[in-house]
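quick one before i forget lol
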Amino acid sequence: MKSAVVVLCLLYSIASFAQGNAKWRSWNEPVEPFRIVGNVYSVGAREVSSFLITSPQEHILLDGGFMQTAAIIRDNILKLGFKPQDVKYLVGSHAHFDHAGGLAQLKQWTGAKVAASREDGALMERGGRGDFAFGDKLTFPAVAPGRILVDGDIVSVGDARLVAHLTPGHTKGCTTWTTEAEEDGRSYHVVFLCSTSVPGYTLLHNAAYPNIVNDYQGTFAYLKSLPCDVFLAPHGSMFRLIEKLAARKNAVGRNSFIDVGEFQAFVDRSKRQFEEELKRQERVGEARAGTCHNPR
């Protein structure tokens, strides 16, 4: 429940961020970049994640944070000893301002191609305008995708490889990514979740997104089919970024980011929260209908 609340606060507080709100600054607070597992690195901020998937030649960057996060991501890439201009693909989890906001600037700095699903690619190109839930309230610098993805597409450079899984609901083109990372002679399944939260969305009779309930339900079933050893997500609180960093420092020889079962447990909790919200909206709808048809 905590992660859903965090996401809700993020989505509704853009005005405060623009005014330098201390809470927003803490979410965008820099975190020293580090290797998570194999060729997967964290290069984002405290609450808005960004991941670098590397090869000896070129790299893929997943998510751009806020517009203000772009410089943090660039500097973190440099701190790790990589060159921003070697990033050849920019991909995203979903087209909300706190994850796609920095993509236009990062594209300018790196010269990379942006790859996105059709629905989220169109939203990126509109700079977040016309969002089914937020209209024109949560906008960001527009960026045009150079490649449109369908479910199962592979984005690769060198031996860096990401598989796109369309998991709509949170956005119409929400994309969960997977890769396999090699470490100490073992291969690990890494899942970069898009999002499954329901931040104030209308689930019933939503003219702007008629299939939203079916999409969420299909997404939960799809996510349950994905094997996962390392669970990552667009918000640090979703996968306990800070706690795991502290645990890894205190447990020499153990990678706290490798946790079989954590992802599936998260999906189960998120599905329950979705179902509870759907039932709540159904009860509200029934109560309103009863009031209309049973005048005093």
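fyi Confidence is low (pLDDT under 50) at residues 1-20.
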